[in-house]
Sequence to fold (335 residues):
Amino acid sequence: MSSQVFSWCFIGTGTLAKQVAAEITATDRHRIVSVVSRRKEAAEEFAARFGAEASQDPRRAMEKADAVYVVTPHTTHYPYAKMALELGKPVLCEKPMTVRAAETKELFALAAEKKVYLAEAMWTWFAPPARKVKAWVDEGRAGRIERVETVMLANVIHYAPRLTDPKLAGGAILDSGVYPITYLYRLFGKPSQVRCSGRIEGGVDLGDEIDLIWADGTERRIDLAIDAPDGRNEIRIVGSEGEIVTGPINCANYAELRGKDRSVIERFEAATTMLNEFDRVSEEIRAGRTESAFVPPRATMDVMEIMDECRRQIGLVYPFETGFAGDQETAGNKP
Fold:
């Protein structure tokens, strides 16, 4: 990687923004030069802590940096990412990239038109553990895959107010479900059918059961919740010759390849960190790439379509999108 420090404009100053900022600025490879928040005091507090310039003018702030990191609630990802792309600024946008697949497709089309880098901040796939799991699956190290147990049950409902706010597109599918859906998509490709049932309270889904079905009839379930009293977050891939186990799904620090008797054949250890993501993204941007090799546009768009279909099936419509009926371009997913 170049010895030159890569500069970032942060759009957002919430819990995740602070966590990311603390991690990447602990190195000499990244610095935050500008930060934007609708609340002046929040921007100033963040700026003072991380050595940035506070601003309430996003265009001006974006122009100061090498790239823009959008880390606001889901509902504002689209306008901020679009603004940056129109300015010709590379964008790393938090997951989910937008609330609906149609918006995500529009952003990638704009990025292609402008020849500007755009990637979803899906830290799982910028990190080594998930990529090691994929390599083992692709190489057939566990044999023919017979079943996959994908569970992401957590008690994170109080992590941030947006999780239970329908006006901010809260709920389990968009905030947490994007991880296991992406994981299975990256391992096995796009399913041909989706079945989803959900538990909606207060205008958001707190828990869901998602069945993904592939063209060969293979079916894999995701158990998902953001209010589970007893947490479990892992993926177990059982094959004819053994199994692969890793977890947490979104941020694993290990992956294990086990034999039929569950004895460990190989254990891979590496941290899933925000720094993985920011290092790789800055390298790709400096190399002149306009698409990420780690989280390609098609993966982001296809997963958004799957989540659209899940929301359609459980009737999850946010107050700002009356009449939402899922992405009508999603083929083969209607029950």
About this structure: The first strand starts at residue 6 and ends at 11. Residues 6-121 form a domain with the Rossmann fold fold (CATH 3.40.50.720). The radius of gyration is 20 Å.
